[in-house]
Amino acid sequence: MSLRTLLADEAVYRYVLDHSLREHPEQAALRAATRGHPRAGMQISPEQGQFMALLAKLVEARRCIEIGVFTGYSALGVALALPHGGRLVACDIEDTNVNIGRPFWDRAGVASKIDVRIAPADRTLQSLLDAGEAGQYDFVFIDADKTGYDTYYEYALKLLRAGGIVVLDNTLWGGSVAREARDEDTRAIQALNDKLHRDERIDMVLLPFGDGVTLARKR
Ligand code: SAM
Ligand code: CA
User: Which residues of 19-56 are buried (b: 16+ CB within 10 A; e: fewer)?
Assistant: First the structure.
């Protein structure tokens, strides 16, 4: 079976964007501002951002967590989907890139909804548990260091309410998960994919979308 999906066809991909993308002007501006960044490829695609915002609305998310902010495009999309009083705890280990996104969050009117925590994400997640917030979150997006995913996933299951969802990015890792692993990132994603497939604590699907997006709902 070919790994190419319909969306690998440039004309079809363009059609999808032309017929479904609904970006806030500040989202488009932030994408443009990130385009020249040497690590711009880390940003999620606009249709993925829109998908995650829809998921957040579907679960009526009020309290969310993002692990891996970069310049803040995915955070902006989720924050725009939150109701008044909604909160996104946004975790990253360095603020230089996060600070690129802040003016865009501001102009979109959602900066007050985004609570940035600059620290290794496992420390931030533990601090949420220590603050008695187990079972209080609706939506978690995991998009940071791949060898940390399993740890973040276990924290996510503790912090989510039943019916809450966790979205894991890059679970196909350029297709390398389907071949013999040559590096620890691929091995980590392979092991987590195997674990989630068998995990009775969740309902799940691995979507061949973007670089592979796994969606899991806590039972
Ligand atoms: N979600 C972002 C977007 O759509 O633009 C992209 C995130 S980028 C793929 C991964 C981010 O994870 C980087 O900004 C990196 O600094 C951050 N990161 C790496 N290790 C981390 C850790 N241990 N804790 C928190 N963040 C980490
Ligand atoms: Ca990613």
Answer: eeeebbebbebbbebbeeeeeeebbbbbbbbbbbbebb
